[in-house]
Amino acid sequence: MQDTNNGHNANDGGILSGLRVIDCGTYVAGPAAATVMSDFGAEVIKIERPGGGDLWRLFSKLPGTAKSELDWCWVLTSRNKKSVALDLGRPEGREALIRLVRTADVFLTNYQRTLLEKFRLTWEDLSPVNDRLIYAHLTGYGDTGDDADDPAFDALAYWARSGLMMSVTGTDGSPSAPRPGMGDHPTSMSLFGAIMLGLYRRERTGRGSRVSTSLLASGAWANACDIQAKLLNAKFPVRGEGKHPPNPLTAAYLTRDGKIFLLVLIDPDNEFPRLCRAFGQPELGTGELFATNDGRDRNAAALYAILQSEFESRDLAEWRTIFKRNDIKWAPLPVLDEVVKDPQMRAAEAFIKMDYPGAGVLETVNSPVFVDGSVKRKPTAAAEVGAHTREVLQELGYSADAIDSIVRDTARH
């Protein structure tokens, strides 16, 4: 999508080359949407507070997080981006951002409304500055309601408040804790989609618009099947009762070599007999006990015991061959050491290589969108705080003296 209103021109660097995106967000869910746009060639300028920069830079230093020589948070979410350090609380910093907004196609933020009002960066503030601007706002709990202005992380709004956390529990009923960014990254794809719709609408009307999503709404969408069932007063099976899964055909099993895999047969009338034939007991699939859904429900404990006994008689590698040969739906349950070695991840382009100064060639997680005929840009290393401040301010027409003054002011923080 080419923009002809601004001074930057599209080239063959990706579908979104020629678009300028201002990432005026923090942490993950908002900025990750800008990361996806950068993968397709958009120029992304990240606005950071002087000194420490985005607080996401500090996350991997917290107790209980994974530790590595490189800041894995920043490597992932801030690849390809330019960093401009501005103190938005000072007139000079805000004026520089306003100049940048005049040249931009997208302004993306996940600041709380109170902060946007404090810095005068709401949609109402910025749309008169650039009537073609797509203003993308990610919130925790939406735009209205008693909790709209509450601070939120994905653990709170996406994972906990949506009901997902209490839906995914152990046999004792204890909730499962979320992993870092587990709700942020899916939510970022919702925001990415909203931005693209805004850009599409601009192509048709010539005017910008405000687009948005929230962690809460995205969490509800992730948990939509259970929520829809509850909205229709469906009766749910009681979780955690007994020592067997309620449906042995959608359950995890242990193999002889100590590996765990997940079996998911949701067309059991056709798939269960096929599974029984695959391990040499076809009578199980047609016998009175297990031939129907009602029978499998009544005799779930016995069926689970039979299947577990069968599965623990062979190694996972042998089951992999049997399952593929017989079109059985399953997946291994790998630990992270195995996930990063999974050849299918690379075949699916889920990982992508990048050159990183001082670290050589490393891999990062690719954005999960692909367009035939369009090659994504090769990722570039995440920038240090304010690495591109002078470059961007000079492009905006600031004199050398004015740039020196702004940089000196930010350096004091």
How does this model look, in words?
The protein is α/β, with parallel strands linked by helices and 413 residues long. Helices cover 39% and strands 13% of the residues. It contains 19 helices and eleven strands. The protein has helices at 29-39, 72-77, 91-102, 113-118, 123-126, 154-160, 164-167, 184-205, 215-222, 224-231, 268-278, 282-286, 293-298, 300-311, 316-325, 336-339, 343-347, 389-395, 400-411; strands at 20-23, 43-48, 82-85, 106-109, 134-139, 209-214, 250-254, 260-264, 330-332, 351-356, 360-365. β1, α1 and β2 (43-48) form a beta-alpha-beta unit. α1 packs across α8 and α18 (389-395) runs antiparallel to α19 (400-411).
Quick overview:
By secondary structure, the chain is α/β, with parallel strands linked by helices.
Relevant terms:
19 helices; elongated; 3-stranded antiparallel β-sheet; 6-stranded parallel β-sheet; alpha/beta; disordered N terminus; 11 strands; 413 residues
